Amino acid sequence: MWANAAKKVHTYKSASDAFHDASDEAVASANKPGKKLDLASSSDAARAARAMQEAISGEPLTDGSSVVSHEEEVFARVRLHFGRSKDQYRYSLSEGTFRFLGEEEAAGKSSAFFVFTEDGRYCVKSVDPSEAQMLARVIVDYEQYVLKHKDTLLPKFYGLYEVRLSHRRKPLWMMVQGNVLGGRTGVIQRFDLKGSTHGRKASAKEWAKGRSSVLKDLDFVLSSCALLGATPAAKQQWEQWVQRMGTDSAWLASQGLIDYSLLLGFSSCKPELLKKPLSHVNRLEVQSASLGDLSSSIPAEEALVVYVGIIDCLMPYNWFKRCENVVCGAFFSADISCQPPVAYATRFINFVRKLVSPPGELQEFTTKRQMSSQRLLGYIVGEFGRKDAQHVVKYLTLLVITGGLGRLAVFLSSQRKLK
């Protein structure tokens, strides 16, 4: 296992810890992502969900599976802090059905899949070992941070599980977190915003998904969306959230984390549905005109609601990311997504603050800044310092050579086939 992380684990072995909570007032979500997951199927997602369901409910595990809960005591305290008791958590994750969202529907670059609980409160996401290790490393600091900042917009991390399936050599790592869009109404449009411009535009394939598509920064800017039409109360709420996100992004920078996004989910509903608050999501009511080109999809008698939350915040600014920042920044644009933690946080919060500006100002703010490739060496020195610059150049040269050798191998292989 890891040297300094995830030392405290809880392994589920029997049904002695079964429970029932009839008093849990689960909120049924209208945001039904993906499709209903058939727990009887043989897919990895179904087997992992079934194993977690059995383990959390205290039932004997089937199919030779095993589930290990990492840092269970810390996550239990975090769940209580966010108002989720042990029984409530178990009830949501062990009762009813799940909905499945595969990598094709998720619009992300990773091969992660998502499983949502029927009540819409929780998202169970598959993560790679490096993300699991990072969560285990920061969870204690995260607990202290959220205890001090109760109204944080950071993801609500509820659990980390190592699921071993009998037919797989390597385990599946599953992370349970709050569902940012787990409200009572369906989402009309959603945006994944990083504050960057380079490559931050959804593909035609993504747009073709309709309401399930996840759009990006340039899509937001070009569609003339803005939160300018927010009610005075909503504007005040947004300013408070900007302050929170400033504190949140500063904490992420202190942990050396980058690549996180602000998820905005636009929804419409009858005004009476907004009277009862939801403690597990962040939302505000704005005017329909705020959607710009998308406002035609909102009935005049309905209120527009925006769900807000920070997501995907477990990427460290490691050696690989530093090289990505240098190469991509030099050859493509200085406004690429990958930036050092402090610079990433600064750009992120500046962009978030501009979301209440008129669309014209937002477009001007997000104008691309190009960088000449002739400045590559100077950029390397500026990023790594003169002492490490020569090592970076050697590493980048090795990447070029390796890529060239790879292409040569493919060419030689094709020549053999021709013979």
From TrEMBL:
GO terms for molecular function: 1-phosphatidylinositol-4-phosphate 5-kinase activity; ATP binding. SUPFAM superfamilies: SAICAR synthase-like (SSF56104). SMART domains: PIPKc. Residues 3-356 form the PIPK domain. Keywords: ATP-binding, Kinase, Nucleotide-binding, Transferase. InterPro entries: PInositol-4-P-4/5-kinase_C_sf, PInositol-4-P-4/5-kinase_core, PInositol-4-P-5-kinase_N, PInositol-4/5-P-5/4-kinase. GO terms for biological process: phosphatidylinositol phosphate biosynthetic process. It comes from the Eukaryota. Coiled coil: none annotated. Gene3D superfamilies: 2-Layer Sandwich, Phosphatidylinositol Phosphate Kinase II Beta. GO terms for cellular component: plasma membrane. This is PIPK domain-containing protein.
